Amino acid sequence: MHLLLLNGSPKGESGNSNYLLQLLLEGVDEIPGHTHEFANLVRVKEHRHYVELFQKADAVVMAFPLYTDMMPGVVKAFIEELEPLCGCEGNPALGFIIQCGFPESVHLRALEAYLGKLSSRLGCCYLGTALRGGGGSARSMPAFMARDFTENVRALGRSLGNRGEFNPEIIRRFAGKEKLPFLRLWFMGTVGDRMARAFFWNRVMKSNGAFDRRLAQPYSDPPEGW
Amino acid sequence: MKICVLNGNSEPGELDVFLSRFGLLAEERGHSVKVLQLRDMDIKYCIGCFGCWVKTPGECIARDDSAEVCRTVVHSDVLVCASQVKMGQVSALVKKTLDKLIPLVLPYFTVHEGEIHHPQRYARTRELALILQKDGADEEDLAIIERSFRRMCINFDSSFLSLKLTDEPVEEVVDALAAA
Fold it and tell me: What does the pLDDT average to over A114-132?
């Protein structure tokens, strides 16, 4: 199987999506005989070339974060480049790994529905969408906390390498909590938020000299004529 | 009522004609309409750097026309995303512009509608509507688009007003938006 791994993170190789694809590849590579190629969709000028790579692949896995409840703009731009392939014979199998910074998976379900329909529109065999809330912090977690996360992605890679599919049971396990139970939700909205402010957001703002402007409203004056 | 229309049509065409008629009729009925032609604006892709949260709070660090979009959106009562349906979703032009609305929320977390979301940077909120040129889209596509935008409304503490199509009478579209 020749696998094309499309990294749709607007951060390029430094984003979480690249990390997820690397984990997936570790699982795929446990089964010998496969080849692969990486492409970063943030390189918008290369999209036409990536469409050619898409056509030549046996399977394509696209990974990206949730941006304003949908795919990032660079990913949508690439999807539009795929339009001429709709209805063509021989398109590759297509799967997705999507994640968001919010801890619940419910944020990703509308996008999952879109990706299933996209696969059908392209006439691709749909491998499935592995989605995970809270995926934005996977790389920064201590290894023991991230083990469940990383092992599930590797296992997904093994299922792809072994049988050319995303195992639905692994997708289910990977998804984590659809919504947080009441006490955990309360904790995240209060203590969790304060900890994130103190140990990350406010600290970074202070180091940038921006903390005093953290609540700034630079567009409080209306546009001309309004 | 102040209506901000993001025209995400990549080339002049049927959607532009519809939006011109929409704008004229809405103005006749006493609304103030500002149409932003996204294809003529310099809007860079969001690169996920969080600079708009941690370096220049409330503003994208890339100095582009997204500042004009943000300012107009902040002061609108209704935000209309107008687009051809391309590959089952609004155009990439609309999508990259929506990505640039992130400065309108704060990086922190809050509980909203039983889920974790970001608090709003501005107290003023608005309703959101869609005007779509259907092209080859089917009912399932439209349902998925509406579902995506309803999710976005939760994140921006907005409410979803309606999804209208360019093959509907423009009077009905104006009436639907005037219900806000």
Answer: 97
